[in-house]
Every structure is written in C-alpha cells, then in structure tokens.
Amino acid sequence: MTMTTIFRLRTPLLALALLSAGPLLSGCSTSEATGRTFFNGGLSPAQEQKLGATEHVKIVKEFGGTYDADPALTKYISSLGNFLAKTSETPDQKFTFTLLDSPVVNAFALPGGYVYTTRGLLALANDEAEIAGVIAHEIGHVTAKHSAERYGSTMTANILAAGVGILTGSGQAAQAVGTAGAVAVQSFSRDQEFEADLLGVRYLSRGGFDPNGMGDFLTQLQSSSRLDAEIAGDPGRADQFNIMQTHPRTADRIQRAIQQAGTKTVNNPIVGRDVYLKKIDGMLYGDDPSQGYIRGQRFSHPELKLTFTAPDGFRLINSKTQVAAVGPENSLVIFDGAKADVSGSLKNYLTNVWAKNVRLQDVEKITINGMEAVTGRATQVNTKSGKKDYRLIAIRFSGNKVYRLTFRTDPSQTNRFSEDFRRTTYSFKKLSSAEVAKLKPYRLKIHTVRSGDTLTSLARKMPFADFKLERLLVLNGLNKNSRLVRGQKIKLVTE
C-alpha cells in the first residue's frame, strides 16, 4: 500500500496513525556539501557520532579486526583519508579511517565519519589515485549525510508500517510494508551513489589527484568480479562477487560525474603508482592465518590443526564463524564448530541439541580418520528457498571439542552429490605439526620486470592451482595483449 492509497482513507484515522509520529517528522537536516535538505528521523550530529562509534566496534569485530601487521600502511591510509577530508565542505569534521583485516574487496562508511577499506580492496588497487578515489567516494557519503538520510528513510518506513496497521487492522500488512521499507534502504540509492561520486571527484581534484582513478578502479573491480565468477564455475553470476551490488556504479557514470562536477582540470595530476605499490609490498593477501587458508578446494587451519577438501565445482568462502562451500544447483556445504563444549554422547548432541527441531532419519555412528562421529539426514525440509535435503555430521575432534559438517541440496540433486559429499566428509582430518609448518600465508610482492620476463613466465610464479595468468592480469589491470616493459612494477602473489 502506498502513501497515496493511505491519503484516500478516512482523515480521522490517518491523523490517529500519524499523531505519535509527529516528533519524528520534525527532524530534518541539510548537507553542507550538497545544500539538500532531507528528513533524518531526528538523528542529530551528536547521535550520528554515537551511532557510528557503537557500530564501529561491531564492524571491526565482524571483519576480523584491523590490519595491524603493517602500522605504516594503516597510517598511510589514514593520512590519505584525512588529507582528502580537509578538501571537503566540512574540513573540521572528525573522520576515522580504518583498514580492516579482510580479504574481501569492500569499502563503506558509517554515520559520524567512520570510513572503512579492506586489505582485499588495497590489493586490487593499482595506484594512489585509485585508492584515493575509493576513499573520496566514501567521504562523499558522509558529507552528503547519506547515512542520516537512510536512517530517516528507515523511520519513514516504520511510520508507514504503523499507519497501515492501524488503518487496516492488519498486522500482516504492517509487517509487509516494514519489510519492504527495510529492503529499500539496505543500501545507498543510485542517486546517492552518483552524488557521492560527484563529491568524490570534487575532493580528488582539490587534492591534486587524477579523478579518473575512481573509474579505473571500478573497471578493475568489474574484471575481478567476472574472474571470481568464472573461477566459481558460474560466469553468468558475476554480480554476486561484486560490491557493486551495494555500490551501483560504472566507469561511464564516473565520467559523467567528472563532467558534471564542474571542477578545474588538474594539471599534472597525482597518480602515484610506484609510491602506492611500495606501500602495499609484503601485505597479507587472502586469508589471515587465524582464520585458516583456502587453497583451491582445500581448507586448512594452522592454529586449529585441521583440514578438509570441498567437492570440485564448489567455491569456498571463509568467514569468522564458518566456512561455506557454494556449489551448483543450490548445493551448499557448511563447516563450523559446536557452539559449546559437548561432553555427552554425540548422538544425543545431534538429535537433541543441534537438530532438536528437525526430524532426522538413519542416525548412525561412524569413524572419520580415527575420530568418533555421528550422522543423520533430513529430507524435504521447508526453508525460505523451498524444500531441501540435509545431511548433518558431528565429529568429536578432541575432548569436548566438536566440529560439524552440514550438506544441503535440492531434493532432485541429493543423489547426484552423495558421493562428492562422502569424499568431503572423509577428507576431514587432523594436521600434524609438520603439515602445519608447511602452511604459509599468501603475500603481495612487487616485482620489477626484467629482460626476458613475460606475462606467462610471471604467471607461473603465482601459487594458485588454476587461472594463474588470469589472476595475474586482473590483479594488475592488464589484458593478454599487454606488453611488459623493463623496469615496470608488477604485483605478484607469493607464499
């Protein structure tokens, strides 16, 4: 139901619905950067700061902490951000720039001037202008007060939901509008993204940077997402591997932003390729040792001393609390640990704790590489994405420590993946100290091209099992027709 529909309803009821919302409707804010006034839900600057500070702690925890391995690099990103912030319309506003210890390519901003980049994003960027473009865009979100505007939109959606509930007497209607409102504001709108681009271009130009760096990084990002989708065996779903899901932008739109920003042309703009590459030389690449390593289809954790191998065609995704292997035909494997120590029988844990609300069939004890385990299956389970079949496996690793494997398939595909899942189950094992010692993190190495170096010869140095050349090209913003020049700096991944 739209606001127009509501206004067609009886006026007394509408007044009653909005009466309690009156204080919220009075909250408006104006962005000094854009001159635009909007409803902010009553969120004051002090409240923005408090909200940002509260969420900052959660964000850092969720993304694996800050990248503290290289203090000089974190200081560099902070200095670059503060320099760009000083060129904004609110130079006295406090900003906090944080480099997150995450391999995921991402950047975002919170209310109160909290701006985040990940080391995964830094690894993909090729020069200082590109990383400055990312940061300037996020500063633009802050100075345009997009977070406050989004907060106001959330409040409006909640008010609308309350009004619908009172007017129709339908809790379901209220819930439906509330959900729609939440979905509508879960990411910045295209207009807000373009506005942040306009402001970002302005700040880049004022700082003396090449504003084209913003578009260059987007091109780099699109190439990376396409490769990720190809590696995952599903090239048609490249957008799923792209932060453009929440940042809907293209290089063409950046050019439009440059034209509309109305800034003066920067003579001899800063690109800073060599400076930037020197800063990220030796930076951790991919997974952090504390979260384990993904090497092709294999996941190994040096601190927990365990490993398993996912089926071919599945894409491993590591997070703080679990490892997921996403496969074809909606198949999925989840590896995680029991949420508490398990002192009793594994069968009791499986049936009465882990799957207490699920009817399990064929529950039986098994042994996996010398470890006690128990398994059971559930069929035709109703989920939000339709009926699914599940296979659950609980493994006593040592003492009261239990690890879990969850296999999920569409019922029509269960037999197809049965043998693959069985192999994954029995690939789970403990690592010896000698095996742990062989596990090394990936790092970026800046290589200076020498006589005789070719793209193919350099690609062979990459420690990946597949797509060596493609990974090298995307990492450096090159293509198969690119020619190397002696003395040129190239990013490599080493172990």
Describe the overall structure.
The chain has 495 residues and is an alpha+beta fold. It is built from 18 helices and 19 strands. It has helices spanning 3-7, 11-19, 22-25, 45-62, 71-85, 119-124, 128-143, 146-168, 171-184, 190-206, 212-231, 251-261, 273-280, 346-354, 414-427, 433-437, 455-459, 468-476, and strands at 28-30, 37-39, 96-100, 107-110, 114-118, 284-285, 293-295, 298-301, 306-309, 315-318, 323-326, 332-337, 361-368, 371-383, 386-398, 401-409, 429-430, 442-448, 489-494. Helix 7 (128-143) packs across helix 11 (212-231). Mean pLDDT is 83; it is low at 1-25, 155-186 and 241-246.
Q: How are the strands of the biggest sheet laid out side by side? A: 10-11-12-16-15-14-13
Question: How large is the count of helical segments?
Answer: 18
Q: How many angstroms separate the termini?
A: 57 Å
The number of distinct β-strands equals 19
- Overall mean pLDDT: 83
- Helix percent reads 40-55%
List the helices and strands and how they pair.
Blueprint: H1 3-7, H2 11-19, H3 22-25, E1 28-30, E2 37-39, H4 45-62, H5 71-85, E3 96-100, E4 107-110, E5 114-118, H6 119-124, H7 128-143, H8 146-168, H9 171-184, H10 190-206, H11 212-231, H12 251-261, H13 273-280, E6 284-285, E7 293-295, E8 298-301, E9 306-309, E10 315-318, E11 323-326, E12 332-337, H14 346-354, E13 361-368, E14 371-383, E15 386-398, E16 401-409, H15 414-427, E17 429-430, H16 433-437, E18 442-448, H17 455-459, H18 468-476, E19 489-494
Parallel strand pairs: 3-5
Antiparallel strand pairs: 1-2, 4-5, 6-18, 7-8, 8-9, 9-17, 10-11, 11-12, 12-16, 13-14, 14-15, 15-16, 18-19
